[in-house]
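Just curious: can you write a single protein's sequence together with how it folds?
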Amino acid sequence: MHNLLKASKPAVLTSLLLGLLLVFAENNISNPKMIIIWYVVLLAVSLLRIKLITSYQYNTDTSLITLNRHLKNLRIGTFASGMVWGSIGVLLFTTNDIIHLIFLIFILAGLTAGNTVSNASDLPSSIGFSILALFPIALYLCLDRTDIFIYMGLAVMLYLGLLIIVSRYMNTHISQNYVLRHKAEASAKEARISEERYRMILQYSPAGIVHYNKNLIITYCNDRFAEVMKTSKEKLIGLDIKTLKDQRLTPSLREAIEGKEGVYDGEYLSTLSNTQLWIIMSYVPIRDSEDIIEGGIAIIEDITERKIAEKETTKLINNLRQAEKISHLGNWHYDLASNALDWSDEIYNIFELDKESFEPTYEAFLNIIHPDDRDMVARAYEHSLETKQKYEITHRLLMKDGRVKYVNEQCETKFDPNGKPICSLGTVQDITQQMQYQIRLENSENTLRYLLKMSPIAVRIAKNDGQDVIFANESYSKLIHADISDVLGKNPKNYYADQEQYDEIVSQINNNEIIYNRLIELSIENKTMWVLASYMPIDFEGFPCVLGWFYDITEEKNLQREVEEQRDEFKALFNTSKDGIAILDHESNFVDFNDAYLEMTGFTRSELLKTSCLSLSAPEDQERARQAMQIVFESGYIKGFEKTCIVKDGKRLYINMTATLLPDKERILITTKDISAMKEHARQLEHLAHYDALTGLPNRILESDRLQQGMIQTQRHGNHLAVFYLDLDGFKHVNDNYGHSVGDQLLINLSARMKQALREGDTLSRLGGDEFVAILSDINNPSEAIPIIRRLLDAASRPIQLGDFIIQVSASVGVTFYPQEHDVDGDQLVRQADQAMYVAKQSGKNCYHVFGSEHS
């Protein structure tokens, strides 16, 4: 723009002078008035151009928009001038005077040649002016049919083409010169800045910089170098490097003098300060203007703290990996932009995949999931992306060998400011063992449901702090005079005469207390009923619930002695807590542990540090525990080891332990779970499933199992088995006259008597009410059973003192034997004995009858 403005004024003045020359030359030849008007127009356009040029030269606004506007206006002025000159070629065109025509062409050619030079810095102005000035006369010449004029027109056209080519060449040359000059000026400025910057870098660089000559004498160092070496610059400048105590850097510094470049990465002991460092040093030779080496320069960075941090980080990562392995917890990172999925080593272990050959992708992850759970997991992830919320889900994995694993997965997604998901991070934990325990508990719960449903005792289970009944058996519905459908979902508190008493019971149950035989007053249909109620906390259908048993003692209340004091409360041995984690030395002594482990064992920190893990093992498990520790030291890992521990105050814990050998091969990291409550709960459910709640005798289920086992044993040994079906004579009279509580006590005492009448190894079971079944195995012949039958009849018929009453009943016994002529199963044997018992009843009671015989 500057070059264009600078050359435009002379070009405008030249245009005016040529126009004036043309006016005088053509005044005597052409129409003088037309020439004068043409020149006035040319003068007006030229003055306007001069005004624009002058105003733009002194304008201080150098913005790109302003410059473009100025350039546009200047081009318009140039094009207008070219049109004025082009018009004169048309106005003065004549074929009668060839000399006149040549003069006119000569004037236009000279004008356009000067314009090409003056406007060379702006290609559109240069080419546009030439075309507008020359093209009209060239066109007129070509349109004339005279050969000479056609040739002249073509010549003008060729000249115009030459001007366009020259314009492009000159414009390119000027642009290149401008760029080169601009670059030269910028380079010179940059060189000055670089020199100053280099001096600043040397002095204030965060890295230590040192110059030395060919004799390894330090000639310069900056403040940072002195700081790294823990001394002053004055002591370093002039120092002979060859005299330093630690010469590990000297070979590298000599390489720079030899013309080599390189890097040293290692430890160094500073001689002047006796400080141990870890440094990275880059070194290059220093050359003079003739490219002769005159010394070297080294840049030193102190990375001591970084190295220490790297060691600590490596140690922390190793410990984290060990913790992940022990807790079966892996982590993953999913980059949504690149679709790259990264797994930790523990996830490969959980999924049982080879890290070297398996490439993790989101699709591959979905393929590992159990087919029935894939849609659920995919929907959970997609929903979390839509809602921008975390999610947690438990699902199954299908292993290659058909095994099923359970995992708990958690995920959180990060989003950019526009709400677009960037990446997802999450964890996967193997919970297969916990889920297997839970499945066993659910199976036990189903068994419990069946037993409670069939129980002759009134039973109900309520959730939500005992406020919402979710299970009741037929006996309970009869007790409160309502259908089961009317009981479910109702608050059992409404049946209590003293409702605050029920709140107190629930409060005790929430404290894990068990309540036995508490006297409760019920209000059923505005009538008072009295029951002996027992309560205990239980997990049922996934809810913490209150389980209640109820014995109706309304009729016997005034005859019964005061209820015994509530039995001693039982507290759960241990509550579920977080995993206890501890570190043991080679002798299994405690080195460190977490608070959960302290809470689990009950010891203080100082007490636990004075003992060993093996010493906490119960005597019966100490040898197994010692072998387990040996396995860890040999193989590096043991999982799911269960043992009993004796902790604070002699308490016994049943724990599940996983142990792994730490990288130093001297210590073991263990994680423990207290499964005592789970074991105890399973034992209680097992007992409820197989034994009668009143007498403690085997129930129908256990009786059937033992009968089946006895029949198998009889077939194997080739001997006989006897089945007795016993029904008490007169028991209903006892219940009607003395009450059900006396009847229950009678059943308890008779059960004990009759059990003593049998041999050791025989089974006496209660089927319900006053009916019992005895199983005698390993008898050589049926006659051996007769004395035992008589002992049973005697035990049942002897009087019993119950409080103020002497009660006496008798028994009728049906007998059958196995094997028989035809194949029979256990149920058929019991039915045969039952039929024989009815024959004994009809024969006068207090006797026995053998199935299939004619005699009692």
Remarks:
- The chain has 27 helices and 27 strands.
- The CA atoms of residues 411 and 426 lie 4 Å apart.
